Amino acid sequence: MKLVYGVSDRPKLSQLIVYGFQQVLAIMAATIAVPLIVGNEMSTAAALCGAGIGTLVYVFFTKRKSPVFLGSSFAFIGSMTAAFAGAVSLQAGYMGLLLGALFAGLVYVVFALIIRKVGTHWINQLMPAIVIGPTVSIIGLSLASSAVSNLSTSSATGEKTQFAILCGIISLFATMLASTYGRRRAKMIPFIIGILCGYGVAAIFTVIGNKTGYQPMQIVDFSAFSALTSNGVGLSTFLSVPDFTFVKAFKGFHELDSSYIATIFAAYVPVAFVVFAEHIADHRNISSIIETDLLEDPGLDHTLLGDGIGSIFGAFFGGCPNTTYGESIACVAITRNASVATIIAAAIECIIISFISPFVAFISSIPECVMGGVCMALYGFIAVSGLKMIQRADLDVNKNLYVISTILISGIGGLSLTFGKITITTIACSLILGIIVNKMLSKDPDSRTDNDL
Fold first, then answer.
1. Do the beta carbons of residue 366 and residue 41 sit within 8 Å?
2. According to DSSP H, which parts of 62-89 are helical?
3. pLDDT by residue (tens digit) across 335-374?
4. Distance in angstroms (rounded) separating the CA atoms of residues 91 and 88
5. pLDDT of 450
């Protein structure tokens, strides 16, 4: 892939602001979804700020060589829920979030130290392209149902309507047309164009629906804007400090005991081992896009440190452990903008936006159907980029067929395992099965060696 902006390139400041905001829009839906799902008064603005801070930490540890944004990790939703469920108070639950992120981050640090000592050769043997490729595809395909569900849902009523689908399809088409036929500037911001087009149509439908009382046309939920002026217009209408996790957490510090700390440890640490595999898949994916092996330069130890410590800092402010985002990687692939400066701009914008109430309101008001349309393109690119990794594989060889088919079918089918409070996600299950099948059939006389694939 020929990049418009390479990793070390820096667009003009005005362009950086726009390109960075596009990255914000790409990761925004998933990042604020995690605190909404977990509940317990978690702040979406704080999660957005935490994602920005975590990303800056990641960029620092990866020496500005990896153009990936970190956002709230869905893999830890069960762990976060367990933290609140086992706490004696809400404040203690927030303290549990900080402890859990610390435990998970330390797992990454331990992995990084081991890899720095022994190298990454064993990872290349354990997870060659024939395993990682379809696993990356599953990351995109596993999100397909979410995109399609959002595509048909009205944010104003929560109902599925044909008008919502139309708005989502308009967003998708506008994104594709801008990316394919647009001029250079339009090709760099297809998601902004797609979202604005879909939002505009949805707003028109909503106005008509409100005037006529026809609910199927009511798409946009404008309540976030109404809340801004509910107490009058003033400085607080425009600026507000997010409800940071550490503020509540410190109030619950004295309520911790050894049994609760053990519960947090058991809820978070095993998940960190699972997310480690997804970390490798994401970095193999972005490596194929920028044509530089990030596992070698800056090195897997650096990416793990960035991800782990960035996750700790992100959770300190937003409560959510962070992880590298496939949506961010897809945005890089579609726009061909791999500039780390753009990622830095997006991180800074996330932090600033979290303090500006009208921006938070605008982002919150973007209809689910509009984001669903855009995400169809994002998730599709993730899936296709994974398939590109295995384009050299000989599918006439049984071993290759079985490895790829096992990963794809288990992933698309949604295979996952739960042991008490610990859940092994679909992606992790698919990857583990692929590794087992690949090693089990490694003696296939017709197959090439792992290094060939």
1. no
2. 77-85
3. 999 999 999 999 999 999 999 888 888 888 889 899 899 8
4. 8
5. 45
